[in-house]
Amino acid sequence: MQKLKESETIELKTSTSELKEAIISIAAILNKHQKGVLYFGIKNDGRVIGQDVTERTIREISKTISDHIEPKIFPKINEVGLDGKKCVHVEFSGNNVPYYAYGRAYIRIGDEDRQLSAKELERLILDKKRDKLMWDKEICKKADLNDINVEKLKWFLKEAGKEYDSVESSLDKLGLIKD
Question: What is the rounded distance in angstroms from the CA atom of residue 104 to the CA atom of residue 98?
Answer without folding.
Answer: 10
